[in-house]
């Protein structure tokens, strides 16, 4: 299988480097990833900017742009064949709940929805992954499972979050819904002078307890969370319902 491997932490990030080595044992893998860290960029593109792409090694490219740029140029301008799947990650830090809206890891995966197999976004709930060997091996298994999903998963994005646990400690896999978060913490003021202030983002809101199993709860309890993200941007039933309220 031909895999376009990308991320939002940059091509030198330890997790993508380890995943590239593992997946290359079984597949034809091209790493096309950002030059530096692009966390929080969602599916932003560098529409008004020229993008510099550097060939770092055989099948490894550094892109001076966003994660979504990497997918776009990788799929449409850098090779003379079609990739079978986009794999994004493994992100340093979880991408759960509402956070997927802002995630560069997920944003890069979204661009691969029209390929032969659904794209996969991968994250681990740790910024310095301790159990990377288990996680990359488990990722290889999950990729093979996703490859065999039925046609109704075409166009969807598979979002996977790992707890940073060993094989012995990990309790298995749970299929989950996205957690809803409470109100985020207020921005942190880091500079103030006359009419000028500078702020930085603070923590996301805490996950809300729900009746169904969420990704946040599963990872917290020691399970690998797998969620299905639907980026079809149209709901027929809501569109028809809206006609009853807005009709000229």
Describe the structure.
With 248 residues, this protein is of the alpha/beta class. It has one domain (2-179, 210-242): Stationary-phase Survival Protein Sure Homolog, Chain: A (3-Layer(aba) Sandwich). It is 23% helix and 25% strand. The protein is built from six helices and eleven strands. It has a nine-stranded mixed beta sheet with strand order 3-4-2-1-5-6-7-11-8. Helix 1 (14-23) packs across helix 4 and helix 2 (67-76) runs parallel beside helix 3. The longest helix is centred in the middle third of the chain and has 16 residues, at 132-147. The protein is globular and about 50 Å long. It starts with a strand and ends in a 6-residue tail after the last helix.
Topology:
Blueprint lengths: L1 E5 L7 H10 L4 E7 L18 E5 L2 E4 L3 H10 L8 E8 L11 H7 L9 E5 L7 H16 L8 E7 L10 E3 L12 E6 L2 E5 L14 H6 L3 E7 L5 H7 L6
Helix pairs in contact: 1-4, 2-3
């Amino acid at each position: 299988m031909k895999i376009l491997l990308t991320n939002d932490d940059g091509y030198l990030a330890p997790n993508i480097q380890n995943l590239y080595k593992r997946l290359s044992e079984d597949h034809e893998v091209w790493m096309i990833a950002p030059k530096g860290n692009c966390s929080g960029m969602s599916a932003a593109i560098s529409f008004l900017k020229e993008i510099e792409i550097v060939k770092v090694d055989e099948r490894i490219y550094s892109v001076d742009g966003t994660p979504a740029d990497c997918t776009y140029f990788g799929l449409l301008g850098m090779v003379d064949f079609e990739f079978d799947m986009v794999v994004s990650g493994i992100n340093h830090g979880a991408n759960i709940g509402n956070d997927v809206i802002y995630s560069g890891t997920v944003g890069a995966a979204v661009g691969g929805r029209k390929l032969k197999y659904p794209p996969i976004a991968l994250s681990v709930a740790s910024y310095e992954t301790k159990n990377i060997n288990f996680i990359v091996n488990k990722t290889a298994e999950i990729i093979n499972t996703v490859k065999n999903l039925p046609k109704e998963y075409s166009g969807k994005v598979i979002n996977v979050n790992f707890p940073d646990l060993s094989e012995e400690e990990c309790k298995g896999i749970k299929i989950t819904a996205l957690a809803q978060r409470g109100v985020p913490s207020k921005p942190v003021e880091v500079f103030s002078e006359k009419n000028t202030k500078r702020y930085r983002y603070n923590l996301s809101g805490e996950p809300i307890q729900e009746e169904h199993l969420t990704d946040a709860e599963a990872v917290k309890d020691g399970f690998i969370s797998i969620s299905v993200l639907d980026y079809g941007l149209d709901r027929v039933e809501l569109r028809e319902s809206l006609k009853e309220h807005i009709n000229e």
